Amino acid sequence: MSRLFEELDYQSTPIGAVSLRRRRELTLDIDVYEIKLDDEFLMSSLYTASEVALAERALAALGTGRDAALDVVVGGLGLGYTAQTVLGHAGLGELLVVELLAPVIDWHRRGLVPIGRVLAEDPRCRLVEADFFACAASAAGFDPAQHGRRFDAILLDIDHSPEHWLDPRSEAFYGARGLRALCRHLRPGGVFGLWSNTPPDETFTARLAAVFADARAEPVHFRDPVQGRDWVQAVYLARTAAGEGA
Questions:
Q1: Per-residue pLDDT tens over the stretch 118-170
Q2: CB within 8 Å of 64: residues ≥ 6 apart
């Protein structure tokens, strides 16, 4: 049996100290991995349903009418469950995972996370150290090797919700101007998917609908096996118009 608690890594970053921890959950007899930023919990391997749902539902929303292999961006690496789900999609061409914190990328390259080196070693996946929100606002976009490249899907799991940010500088992204800037990095009929720790919010859904051709929020229900209670989070899905230009 593994140790009851172990801090696998702890490093300073521009937005705070980030740490990767592994603890033994005795009630379930499993190891649980957690990421913290200072004193704030970012992700746990115990709760991954909505991270997986983000990828599954966004890629399903693209439909089946695309001729070429899909190009996808995931903003926020974390423990890698959203990106891993994208890699499982049969129609994937290339995945770019944009992550601000270098230590998090390093954990995947060293295999310290539960999924090991799956993302780092898959030739279809590139781990890009960059600020997702700065990339979204720029004309250059997300691919440092191809200025202005456009994607079939852009998935985001960084902040806790559109109203609760890890860094105040990301607030502008969730306004109409920030969302419009993101649109230019999507191909016609492309999908933007957003994870939120809170249930669907009508106000933010309406904001998406004012920018994209269509938008909706879907609840994600899951059971907390430790507390024995149900939780509801959200996945927001928004699509550009099929004939929308750059």
A1: 999 999 999 999 999 999 999 999 999 999 999 999 999 999 999 999 998 89
A2: none
The encoded tokens of residue 68 equal 């070429």
Bridge-based pairing state of the strands 5-13 and 70-75: unpaired
Tokens 């959950």 correspond to 25
Give me the residue spans of the domains in the chain. Answer: 47-239
Burial of 41 from C-beta contacts in 10 A (0-12 / 13-18 / 19+): exposed
Assess if CATH 3.40.50.150 describes domain 47-239.
Answer: yes
185-234 pLDDT, tens digit per residue, is 999 999 999 999 999 999 999 999 999 999 999 999 998 888 888 999 99
Cβ contact 140:110 at 8 Å? no
Sequence-distant (6+) residues with CB within 8 A of 21 are 5, 6, 7, 8, 33, 34, 35, 36
Q: Which of 54, 77, 233 is nearest to 161 (CA)?
A: 233
